[in-house]
Each structure stands twice: as structure tokens, then as C-alpha cells.
Amino acid sequence: MTMHDRQIAGEPTAWLRQLEDLNACCVIYLRLWCDGPDGRAAVRRDLDNALGPRRASTAIEAFETLIALLSQHQRRKLMRHAVSCPCLGADEAYFAHFVATAATGEREDALWMAMVLVRPETAMHLTAAASAFGLRIAQMLTSRIPPVLH
Question: Phi first, then psi: what are they for 75, rounded to 5°?
Fold first, then answer.
């Protein structure tokens, strides 16, 4: 990867407010989680409030697995914008689309997308974690319990 490729990966592609709720949640949670302990606590608190302790625990476990697999087996580092940034970066858009695709049951498409993010032998595990996490977020959003994302 060249320096130019890294710039493209973080290049703004849209506004966060233009995303569907599931995709926006994925981006915001990714940003918060990667921002450090306070951000992780905010994600945990938000999911716990929206889903209840048991379902939140399942969502958090899936998200932790998803992030751990990405961190340990990534093809390259994902570029992220700051937590408060209104822009949507190209890598963030791809991550959110991957999770949403996995959550909607389009498993083969999600598996292909995972292979862009991680090595092929890890792609199936990454897709399973994305599906489990995305399904919990979709449940949260359909239950009409608004997430407290700020």
C-alpha cells in the first residue's frame, strides 16, 4: 500500500447523518471503541441501556471478537475519523456495509467483503462475528429503543 492509498482509505465519502441507522451505529461504535477505555465504556453502556444486560452482553462479545479479529489479522489498518467528526471515511463506510451485509443474511457477499479486511482463513470467523453483532444492533433499532450515541 502506498501513502496515496492510505489517504484514500480515510478520505471522506459522505456525511455520517446520511447513513441508515444500522450503518451509522456501526461507525459510531467503531470510533468509540477504538478511541480508548472511555469510548468502550460508552458503547457498553449504550448497548446495555438499549438491549438489556443479557442481549447487550451477546452484542458486546460479538463486537469484541469482531474488533480483535480485525486487529490481529487485518490486511492493513482501517482508517477512522474522530468520534465527533461528521464525515464518513471510506474504510468506515466499508466496515459498516460489511456488518450490515452480514446481519441481513447475505453471507456469501459478506464473506467476500471480509476477505478484503482480513486473510482468507479468518474471513469466516470475522463474518460470523459481524453477523452476530449486526443482528443485535438491528434488533435494537427495530425495537424502537433509540440508542444514546452521544
Answer: -75, -35
**Beta-bridge partners for 59:** none
Helices 53-73 and 37-51, axial angle in degrees (round to 10): 140
Q: For position 8, what pLDDT does the model report?
A: 58
The DSSP-derived string for the chain is --HHHHHHHHSEEEEGGGS-HHHHHHHHHHHHHHH-HHHHHHHHHHHHHHH-HHHHHHHHHHHHHHHHHHHHHBSSPPP---TT--EEEHHHHHHHHHHHHHHTT-HHHHHHHHHHHB-HHHHHHHHHHHHHHHHHHHHHHHTT------
Q: Which tens digit of pLDDT belongs to each residue from 64-119?
A: 999 999 999 998 888 899 999 999 999 999 999 999 999 998 989 999 999 999 99
pLDDT in tens, 11-70: 667 888 999 999 999 999 999 999 999 999 999 999 999 999 999 999 999 999 999 999
The full set of domain ranges for the chain reads: 20-142
